[in-house]
């Protein structure tokens, strides 16, 4: 992102260095959510087997919600004077995690892999909240609200791979 011009202003009341740090945290979350929405759609297209239709139909609302989260973060980056960059190559270049490992696969295989994706996204959102606490309470609140929804989505996924005794099948 070295060729991206950052504005010489930020939202009133935020110091420029705090805004730049918040933008970096938000950019990481934006990349993660763009990746998540594409991963969710990939699973939607490639899940097969028993309970296919329930999982297939569960994923589209998650895709839509994550897409909205991504837009909210991108607009906050711009509000703080940053430039949200969402081009495919830039997203791949900024990713810190491996690609989703399952192609066409059974419901249980996809949901186990998706649970791991949500673990990473949700843990990193929680870390972002801690980082943003001292930088920008507006961004902190935004990410906190997103985390509540992301954790619910993970709960939906885990309901499919949890035993009656509360154990996740890994």
Question: Keywords, please?
Answer:
Ferritin; 69% helix; two-stranded parallel ribbon; DNA starvation/stationary phase protection protein; mainly alpha; 170 residues
Oligomer: single chain
**Total beta strand runs:** 2
Global mean pLDDT: 93
The ordered string of helix (H) and strand (E) elements is HEHHEHH
Q: State the CATH superfamily name.
A: Ferritin, core subunit, four-helix bundle
Roughly what fraction of the amino acids lie in strands? under 5%
Q: Taking Cα atoms only, what radius of gyration do you get, to the nearest Å?
A: 17 Å
Low-confidence parts: none
Please give the domain count. Answer: 1
The CATH topology turns out to be Ferritin
* Alpha-carbon distance between the two ends: 37 Å
Shape: elongated
Provide the helix percentage.
Answer: 55-70%
Structural class computed from helices and strand pairing:
mainly alpha
Strand numbers in spatial order across the main sheet: 1-2
Name of the CATH class:
Mainly Alpha
Layout of helices and strands:
Layout: H1 16-46, E1 47-48, H2 52-79, H3 88-94, E2 105-106, H4 107-132, H5 137-161
Parallel strand pairs: 1-2
Helix pairs in contact: 1-2, 1-4, 2-5, 4-5
GO molecular function: ferric iron binding; oxidoreductase activity, acting on metal ions
Family: Belongs to the Dps family.
InterPro entries: DPS_DNA-bd (IPR002177), DPS_DNA-bd_CS (IPR023188), Ferritin-like (IPR012347), Ferritin-like_SF (IPR009078), Ferritin_DPS_dom (IPR008331)
